[in-house]
Amino acid sequence: MPPQLRPETRLSNGPHEIGLLEAVRKYLEIHKQRTDSITFLELCNRYLAAKSARDERHLKGLRNTRDRFPSLHEKLVSDIDYRILEPLINAVPAGGRNLILRHFKLFFNFAIKKGFAKENPVARLDFVQVIRKEVEVIAPTDVARMLEHALQSDLDLVPFLTLGFFCGIRPEEIRLMHWGDIDIPTKGITIRPDVSKTHKRRFPELSDNAVAWLEAYRRAGGQMKGPITKLREDALFAHRQKNRLAAGVTHWPNSAMRHSFCTFWLAAHHDVNKLVLLSGHDSPDAMWRHYHRGTTEVEAAKFWSILPPSEPANVIVAFGR
Fold first, then answer.
1. Would you state the pLDDT for residue 317?
2. Residue 145 and residue 248 in contact, taking contact as beta carbons nearer than 8 Å
3. In the chain, which end has fewer C-beta atoms inside a 10 angstrom radius, N or C?
4. How far apart are CA 79 and CA 216, in angstroms?
5. Tens-place pLDDT, residues 48-94
6. CA distance 147 to 243
7. Closest CA to 121 of 112, 132, 131, 130
8. Which of 159, 295, 288 is nearest to 227 (CA)?
9. 3-state DSSP call for residue 192?
10. What is the tally of structural domains in the chain?
């Protein structure tokens, strides 16, 4: 019969000795955690299924991250710590490292929420320090060429460009909007919570030239029922790229339409607090840092005067109001 160990029996490991009961409890805790856990591949798939209503481009990025690291697929989530992730992350070029880390953070936060893990290993990893570049905008002459080309050769793209450039609505939000969200007579727009990136309702406004372009779209035979954008995401991307290249726009900065709207709107109206409400941002200070003096009032006047070729000059927006 094996000898009975008293509770106070110690397992010696130099300065880190622990009691036997403590060691047993720790073992049982780890065993239960591993029993309750799932593989990394299953975690990713469950997360993607739970977020299936999100923007398809975001979901595609998450799937790419999942598939990029097959060595993790069969590992239990509870067994993955920062020492396993660190060499994998360091092998990724610096320019793409932060996106991978953000995706891992989402996966492991989900794991914690569902009880598959106790902590997020990304918390012990370092994001790459990125020097924020100055916001870039699309010049008014280029915006005009893009809209004119769409009106002539790709009519369904006109509302997308109009709402992106002149109303500051995010592309992924426009894709979920319906014509019922727009009230042209009152120049009102409703971004529903299920459409908004931040899941908060907001009310952008139709500028005078936005109304003129939507009216030109209608006169050209454009349909104003159902979804505003009827193209699938990949097809929409292809149409957009073809449009800007046809207009001679070879450089397309990140979030170009939204940054253009915010920059030109602030230069024309000088009201950062209202811009925060219109755009759905949450920080007036950040808006001011990013967009104040990003362009001149002269350039802003050109931007807000972009009209369809047949529109008379007296439809131009009154600035400074």
1. 39
2. yes
3. N
4. 59
5. 999 988 878 789 999 999 999 999 999 999 999 999 999 999 999 88
6. 9
7. 112
8. 159
9. coil
10. 2
Packed helices 82-90 and 94-114: angle between N→C axes, nearest 10 degrees: 160
Whether 25 is in a domain gets the answer: no
pLDDT at 26: 62
Domain of 63 in residue numbering reads as 40-124
Task: Select from 124, 152, 174 the last residue of a domain.
Answer: 124
Give yes or no: residues 78 and 117 share one domain.
yes
Q: What is the pLDDT of residue 88?
A: 95
Supply the DSSP symbol for 150. Answer: H
Does 311 lie in the same domain as 162? yes
**Together in a domain, 102 and 151:** no
Say how far apart CA 52 and CA 56 lie, in whole Å.
8
* Residue-level pLDDT at 15: 53
Instruction: Report the pLDDT value the prediction gives residue 318, as an integer from 0 to 100.
Output: 36
pLDDT at 14: 53
Q: How far, in Å, CA of 154 to CA of 147, rounded? A: 9
Question: Do 228 and 148 share a structural domain?
Answer: yes
CATH number of the domain where residue 94 is located: 1.10.150.130
CATH code, 149? 1.10.443.10
- What's the pTM value of the predicted model, to 2 decimals? 0.65
Residues of the chain with pLDDT under 50: 1-9, 11, 313-321
Q: Is residue 28 part of a domain?
A: no
Q: Alpha helix (H) ranges present in the chain?
A: 20-36, 40-50, 56-68, 82-90, 94-114, 140-153, 158-167, 171-174, 208-219, 233-246, 256-269, 272-279, 284-291, 297-303
Asked if residue 160 and residue 308 are part of one domain, the reply reads: yes
Q: What are phi and psi of 189, to 5 degrees?
A: -135, 140
Same-domain status, 226 and 152: yes
Q: Which residues, in sequence order, are bridge partners of residue 158?
A: none
CA distance linking residue 29 with residue 42, whole number of Å: 22
